[in-house]
Amino acid sequence: MKKTLLFLALCLCLFGTAHAATAGSVKVVATFSILGDMVKNVGGELVAVTVLVGPNADTHTYSPTPEDAKKVAQADLVVMNGLHLEGWIDRLVQASGCKAPVVIASAGITPLTMDDEDGGGAKVTDPHAWQDLENGMRYVENIRAGLCAADPAHAGDYAKNAEAYRAKLAAMHAWVRDAFARIPEARRTIITSHDAFGYLAHAYGVTLLSPMGVSTESEASAKNVAELIRQIKKEKVTALFVENMTDPRLMEGITRETGVKAGGELFSDALSAPDGPAPTYLDMFRHNVTLMTQAMAEETRQ
Ligand SMILES: [Zn+2]
Fold it and tell me: What's the whole-model pTM score?
């Protein structure tokens, strides 16, 4: 009898703990802010999300800290982009001793290539796949599958959240397509400092020029910049943009040289702070596409 009671008490206790710990009980580490936002949307209150590379920070050149290794060690799930964006992740996961499953959010997308930063004409994989919202929907599906595997008891909740979020991404995708479609094709050319919008250009019919290659680490060479200035003068470039995580001085110089208008600050690889113009993945698209299409629609040559 005593044993039975004890067993019952234990069961109740375990059940009670599992039940009470549902809110924020799945610890997810996301490598950078955009993925963190996606995980929050799919996980809702069931997950506690930790982001390694925060708002306005550069994932390409990030150096993990001992604190990051602790966060990864305690994670139930790690979500990363893949496509060689996080060159530092394998070492971090290894060093942390983390046994948690790792979701590669970009798995299953069709990768694009881009010019290598050294200017030698070689092609490398473009990691910025989230800049096409159809890819973003694929990310959401991969994150949903990862959360369901880590926490099968709440698979239904994750499916419901993912479905609702995908509908919002699909609506934004349609809005972005329409916004660019209204601009004559010849005017859909812009310049950005860091070549992060290849997927956006491919998905929505925009031509992009950029003085830097894939990594923000590389300095644009004088030869590249001279070539770009020649191209700007020759082609109908409507606007030039800087990104939130790169040095604006180079683009300011090109603006002075060419007279092409500065279109403002785009968010490519990182979200803004919560009180900024792009605190979520959806806000990022709204902000970027509004700036781009405004610049394209205006007569910008001075
Ligand atoms: Zn980038």
Answer: 0.86
